[in-house]
Design a protein that fits this description.
The complex is a heterodimer of chains A (255) and B (675).
Chain A: E1 2-7, E2 9-11, E3 33-35, H1 37-53, E4 57-64, H2 68-78, E5 82-87, H3 96-108, E6 114-118, H4 129-137, E7 141-151, E8 154-160, E9 166-172, E10 175-179, H5 191-197, E11 201-206, H6 237-250
Parallel strand pairs in A: 1-4, 1-6, 4-5, 5-11, 6-10, 7-10
Antiparallel strand pairs in A: 2-3, 7-8, 8-9
Helix pairs in contact in A: 2-5, 3-4
Chain B: H1 41-71, H2 83-95, H3 98-103, H4 105-132, H5 143-173, H6 184-202, H7 211-230, H8 238-248, H9 275-283, H10 289-292, H11 305-319, H12 346-349, H13 357-361, H14 368-380, H15 388-399, H16 408-418, E1 429-432, H17 434-439, H18 441-457, E2 461-462, H19 472-476, H20 480-496, E3 501-504, H21 507-514, E4 525-528, H22 529-535, E5 546-550, H23 564-573, E6 574-578, H24 606-615, E7 621-624, H25 627-640, E8 646-649, H26 650-665
Parallel strand pairs in B: 1-2, 1-3, 3-4, 5-6, 5-7, 7-8
Helix pairs in contact in B: 1-7, 1-9, 2-8, 4-5, 5-6, 6-7, 8-9, 9-11, 18-26, 22-23, 23-26, 24-25
Classes of the chains: A alpha/beta (255), B mainly alpha (675).
Amino acid sequence: MKIVVAIKQVPERDAPLRIAANGRWIEEGDLTYTINEPDAYALEEALQLREKQGAGEVIVVSAGPERVQSTLREALAKGADRAIHIECDDLDSRDTLGVARILAEAIKTESPDLILTGLQSDDLGLGQTGVVLAELLGIPHATIIMQIEPTTGGLKVKRELEDGWFQHVEMPVPALLTIQSGGNKLRYATLMGIKKAKTKELKTVPAAAAAVSPAVSLEHVYLPEKQKKTEMLAGSPQEIAAKIVEKLKFEVRVI
Amino acid sequence: MIAGRLPSTALPHTFPGIALFSSNSDRVFSGSLAEPAAFAPLDSILLAVGILLSAGLFFWRFAPILRTILRSKKDPNYKSSTIGKRVWTFLSEVLCQSKVIRQRPLPGLAHAFVFWGFLAFALVSLNHVALGFGHGFLSTTGVAGRFYFFFAAAWAMLVAISITGLFIRRFFVRPLWLGEKLSYESGVIALLIFLLMVSYLAAFLVQDGGTAARLLWWTHTLTLLIFLPLIPHTKHLHLVLSPVTVFLKKPGFAQIPPLTGDEDFGLVAGKDLTQLTSLQTYSCVECGRCTEHCPAATTGKILNPKEIILGLRTYLNKFGPHSDVPLLTESRIASPDNPPAKYLSMEAAFECTTCGSCEFQCPVGIQHVPVLVGLRRGATNTGAWEDDYGTKLFLALEKNGNALGLSALERDKFIQKQAFPIFDGTQEYCLWLGCMGSYDPKGREIIADFARVMQHLGTSFGVLKKEKCTGDPARRLGNDLVFQNLAETGLKSFEAAKVKKIVTICPHCVRTIATDWREFGIAPEIEHHSEFMARHRDRLPRQNCESIVYHDPCYLGRYRDVYEEPRSVVKQAGTLVEAPRSHERSFCCGAGGGLAFLGEEKGERVSHVRARELAGTGAEVVGTACPFCNTMFRDALPAVSEHPPQLLDIAQLTARALSASQPEANPPPEPGGAQ
């Protein structure tokens, strides 16, 4: 089975975030980057599928500036067979469709049996890229996948629904699945993996499609603001209750 | 032609070279060694054939071993320098038998007598054989000769008594550590040694030149000739190898060698075993000191350091030194194809706390810790080791940079709350918090108390803005990738902050920064807080109310040779009580080697055994000097004792005395002033 894993590089969790001067994104200068967590699980799933079947190929793909190569190398060290770096310095000016387009262009030529990606990214959390990518490639998809079981000619997957419910779906291949975190146990990177990764192919390709004016754009990014608007309501319980209802109705407008 | 020797009285000056020893005086019946009258040419020929046979058999058996050792991997990091130190070690450990005697005084001394007896006997044996060719060089009547024969006789008696004692110990007392299986070859060897001594001593009681003397001479000779070929395939090979092993052993304690080249991942297969390791496996005398003191082996784990070494020997004998067959097996079911499986299993290798007591005890120069960590490196660096806890730890170290897997923001908050100054190059010390000091509640208490002590002393210090783990658990669990990344990050952060001196509460951090990081650069000078406080103890308050039992952390004691400093700090705070096992023989708390992060162990808990020992002293306080020991005992003491003693780090003992002394005395401000 030929599996492509689409990976995003995101700022590390503990990284101190500062808003960029234009207010539309964060300052990227001295941030440290890492693999998007759900993508790490997508990679793990791909590696385990290959190991279980005893054959196949795992190709990791990532779009972004040169720095994403470090994340791709890590993926190679964990066991991916080769990597494709889609060179793209204007990732933040593209919307989901824009990103999915360049991914689709790079993946199309590989004609994989299965495409895995994280269900959403740790930085933007849009949860759209995988789905749009499937649409562009004209293949079926399923989201929030916990387990994949290959069947003859297709897959059986377990989707996470809400409230502790799961859905089991059978689907044909080629297909695209977006993977939920925590379905597997991640492996640790090894010295041998890193050394082997050096000899593995990391191909750089230019972003096929030029950025077009995005349909969705990010207008304003800000840190959560601390608000000190505490108002103490006084009076008898009845009076307080009445005041609360009034505020909820006319100030907050939720009832 | 070889002439048989004639009695010296008959031909006094046959050998001018040894005329000094000759004497014309009449033989006294007893009181001097009887020698056979004359050797017929047939005797000499028989002797020559015997020697050739014996030596031939010896080399026939010894050559494959020597070949295995020599064909093992050459160690690119081996340095033969430090000759002075090597000679000293040789004198102490081989000639003086220091390690043999120290850990087991009575049998040790018996062994030493046999060894010294052998040395004293070397000349006698040489003369004995030379006599068979008519070239005896010690005269039985000359002053020097007589003196030497008597000297050797005294040793012969000691050897005979000692070997009898050792025989009784092995076959009747049967200490657990010698193994379940009785070694009958040891019995044969003991018998041969006894026979050698008796046949020598008896020659004082028979008539010179008589048939009895001749009989004794041949008994002695045959015993020697049988003894020699028995050496290579029994543990008595240590007679030949261990002096070499002790001389050649690598300097430093529990040193983990750097990996070299792109193909070196640690001890994966036989081809990774170096010549020195190979030599060490063949030197093992199976005394079991390593196992007797092993925290894993003595609490019912599979790990048995002696069997690890013997397992490697079995492996080398079976697969050879160039083999690609993995050293560690997944399964621990031994099969005829894989006899050492039980002991060379993944499970066993990862039960080691790297406390180092095996290596410390070993009288024949075997260095167990590099082997055990090497086996783990082979498993972890190649991804063969699959363990949920281990993986979680490595991922936490990769992602969060600390072993506890907490957000670095937690450390920031703690620093802010304690109002620790950030190191900016103006302060004298960089106070290294470590994972425990940064994130563990008890570790934080210790750090805060030590900071108070430093403030009381007026020592300026600052903490690093960001700190990642030193990589100690990754290092000991064989993850060189994580370790290297952390070591390099750490070295950079010290360099960037222009740190000159570091002090910390964790012996693991001290060891890793001072020794293990050296592969990647030189870290600033680092010391443990016990060393710091001991140096300033004159300016620290005294309190003398409680009895305190001090627990030696492995990484401070055996690894750093620091025993007295923490004790002097303890003595400031109360009455020092010694645990049954202390100093170099201290028993591990069970946390080392990354095991603190691998979940609850099988069988009896190491920490409980030690906690019981500490509580059993009746001391009111258990004093620790390592946050990992502290965390282990925090759980173990209440589990083993109904009224557990209080558990305090030495920094907490000092800080408490500080609090007690200040309100009443209001001491004059120290230079620099308490802040």
